[in-house]
Amino acid sequence: MELLAFGDTGWGDELFYATLMTIAVSITAILIGFFFALIFTPLKLSKSKFLNFIANSYTTIIRGVPELLVIYLFFFGGTGAVMFVASIFGYNEYIEINAFITGAFAIGIISGAYSTEVFRGAIQSIDKGQFEAANVLGLNKFSKFFKIILPQALRLAIPNLSNVWQITLKDTSLISVTGLVEIMRQSYIAAGSTRDPLFFYSFAAVLYLLLTFLSMKLINKLEVKYSRGY
Amino acid sequence: MDFELMVNSFPKLLNATLITLKLLSVSLIIGLFIGLFFAILRLNKNVFINRFAYGYSYIFRGTPLLVQIFIIYFGLGQIEYLRSTIFWVILKEPYWCAIIAFALNTGAYTSEILRSAFQTIKPGLIEAGKSLGISNKIIFYKIQIPIAIRQSLPAYGNEIILMMKGTSLASTVTLMDLTGVAKYIISTTFKPIEVFIVAGGIYLFMTFVIHNFVKFLEKKYSFNS
Predict the structure, then answer these.
(1) In this structure, are residues B224 and B199 in contact, taking their beta carbons and an 8 Å threshold?
(2) Interface ipTM
(3) Which residues of B touch A187 (CB under 8 A)?
(4) B34/chain A closest Cα distance in angstroms
(5) pLDDT tens digits, A160-174
């Protein structure tokens, strides 16, 4: 237990901050994912074959390639890509992107592919009559989407989005390869300096279990909230 | 674009794909048995057995695969007692540690897939078997298991693909699988995009083959044919 003490003698505070880091990365990543889903879901639902093709390539590639490989691509390729874009604008100094942004972006793109599929499924399973009724009432596109479609889609999407959240949360453990000090990385450091990997990795597992457990509780509340009309 | 690098790295990556496939197939086979075992425990009416099986699947589905591999590879080696037993022959090899972690992980997901498949079997089918005087054992093996397998094929197909992606974590415990070799080439040449295209292409091809194979099985064993 003294291994987990707060302060200089134990790893308690380090692990606590690492847990906050994991939560921060997960939330950033899933928000980036929602942003991608917001772009790609309409493309998936569009009638244009070309737009469909773009969106399908995105989801197929991301869901068919290991997360770790995507993270390596961003980790080793991210700096180069940003510097290339910067050089177009005439900035040629070395730019270092921090591990948080690289990691959140990589996981976000992965999570976005899953979210896209979830939103597509949810919108497709809304009754056609709802779209027609909105049209008949003369609602503009904006209020049709935000007042009619989205609330119903969210209700259908929340159970699946909670799966996406769990996947995203667990995927953030892979960012530890880039050196971002989240739960996995901190446990690796602690295990290395105390030579007690069994304890620290088991403790990491407990922290992840706690996070998934608590987030499930929260999501269940959301689910109740969004299905109050049913 | 460095096409020469892409062409040169292709055979190396293809070679590493063999290790990925080996890891995948061995852990899937072991995982299927683990999954079936725990699915049967989940259907047991005894609360303790039931809870135990639920706890197993909850823990393995609620923690990242990376943690599981690290506990098995780095953690178990720390127990002095284990080092003196016969298990040490297996546990000192990263290859077997990865397989144990993968098998336990996919076993947890498989148990959930099979459990829900068993639970969706219409009771009428089992009752029909009983009224024909078939013993419980034969009802289980000849009626419940075949229907459950058919029922769980789509979900299990997804699980195979997820597991294929999961094997990439073997590279974190020094195994040179497809991702491991890809990372090595990237970190020596600093050409991430080229290597990603080749390695990602190989993974996508495997996904494509698995996806279509499962679809073929689904069609073959569909109830309507």
Answers:
(1) no
(2) 0.87
(3) 70
(4) 21
(5) 999 999 999 999 999
